Amino acid sequence: LQDEETRKDYDYMLDHPEEYYRHYYHYYSRRLAPKVDVRIVILVTVCAISVFQFFSWWSSYNEAINYLATVPKYRIQATEIARQQGLLNKTKEKGKNRRSKEEIREEEEEIIKDIIKNKIDIKGGYQKPKIYDILLFQILLAPFYLCKYVVWYCWWIYCFTIKGQEYGVEEKLYIIRRYMKMSQSQFDSLEDHQKETFLERQLWIRENYEVYKREQEEELKKKMAMDPRWKRYRRWMKNEGPGRLTFIDD
After folding, report:
1. Which one of 81, 194, 198, 250 is most buried, counting C-beta atoms within 10 A?
2. What residue ranges of the chain have pLDDT lower than 50?
3. How many domains does the chain contain in total?
């Protein structure tokens, strides 16, 4: 009875002994209540998710590097750069330091992968992970990002709405990305010639973008109409698709 809340429950029980089930409810709700601070549970959960995110992204990044090392185009370029820098010659040592062919092959493979890592900028879901992208840092930096967005939004309104300035290249690409409903990483993964096409067609203008969108939809419909897999799917939907249920009586 040292706790104030339990004393109140005890006094209430003495005054109302007929409320039998209510007393049992309060008793077990306090006995079974978690003793761990909820803030600690949330912090540990966020940290666990952040660690899983980081190692998962590293795994995806390494998979992309391993794949690019098998692509002839990138492998030949990386091998040529390694030869020019004299990195491959160092692996073929003689005398006491001579190693097996397997060790030399593994070291050459690592050299090629390191060159690919330094020369190729992988974007999208397989890009090199950054510690500031994990959940923990995103939560900690959320106030900063919010203030940054408010400042940027005020600057946008002042420059382009009040003063009526013309959009720059970055601003045009930003508007196009918003029209396409793509994230920054998705938009960055597009080829440069695609972005140049967007700018040439002036897709930051809403009317031009609507025309482009209809063209893309028509082109997609034509591709799907000619695709044999899509034809099979349509036949299946027509003849045996969902909504057709049969019951077999034994």
Report:
1. 198
2. 242-250
3. 3
